[in-house]
Sequence to fold (348 residues):
Amino acid sequence: MADGLPTVVSDVSRWYATTTLAVGEATGLLTPLLEGGGTAAELASRAGVDRRNAEVWGDAMVVAGYARHDGERYLPDEGVLGVLRGGFPFDLRAVVGLLAPLGGMLPRVERAIRDGTGISSTEIQSNLGALPEQVNGPMYQAFLLDDWIAANPSIEAALQSGIDAAEIGPGGGQALRILATAFPSSRFVGYDLDSNQVARATAAAAEAGLPNLRFEVLDAANLSKARFDLVCAFDTFHHFGRPGAVLDSIRGALRPGGALLVAEAAVSGDPMTDASDPFGIIVYGSNLLYCFQESKADGGAGLGATWAPIHLEALLAEHGFEVAATHPSEAGYLVTRATPSGTRQSVE
Fold:
């Protein structure tokens, strides 16, 4: 029970509230509200929408507790909406932005649940666009260099000296742009199945002026042999439909002394335990709607976001890796460094 209401009633009420917020993001009304608010006419003009609809939206935002009335002006409740301005461990506004396209995907998800065939990464990408990767943007900025890489001094030293590194499933390439900027002596490549993602990532790398970074359309199960000193999988491993084949490919692509660096959300995999995490339902809900469905596509393994990191070590061992180090990050992720079995020496 929440606020004296049955949980279901409270949840339905908040669904309407968050859907109102998502509509504001999708129509552009949320931006002028966050920028200081205004009358319904002012919000409508700045968002390019109908004035009466802007008024109805504003009223719903007030009742939802996201905004308040001051005369004819709608003003944001900073104590509630301020978190959308940034500084959060992840981009909560991007999460809000995902609600509308995820809602549009529900009929497709329903079909996937019934027939068990999953949803391809290309189809998911066409529906969700760049929003899923934007969610992790603040986390990469805050933790990638100063926490994840710093916790692995041998990798950090090697990157500073200059090595060949790859990321599998880089999306729009945010993490690789951070690495390529910080370590100009190293050479980076991102491999993604989706050509649209690769095109966006390539354009962003060029705009950032990073000649040491490139992207290619390639299945991670088909990496070139003995080519890399470091391969990274940041919040992507659970999406793979053929994780064993990917690991076999990575092991073959690593040079002697090379390493694999994997970051996965540090959920326990036990729903009763993870229910106490305030972000648990976001992880489990998004897993149902797209992470698990992507991994299930084309007869895939169906790992999903709640496939806990505790299972990773066994899978690594099965495919010729051993864990060299693990780092529980304050970002809520477990960062695992693994090397091909029998070659525990650091990246050089």
About this structure: DSSP finds 17 helices and nine strands in the chain. Residues 344-348 have pLDDT under 50 and may be disordered.
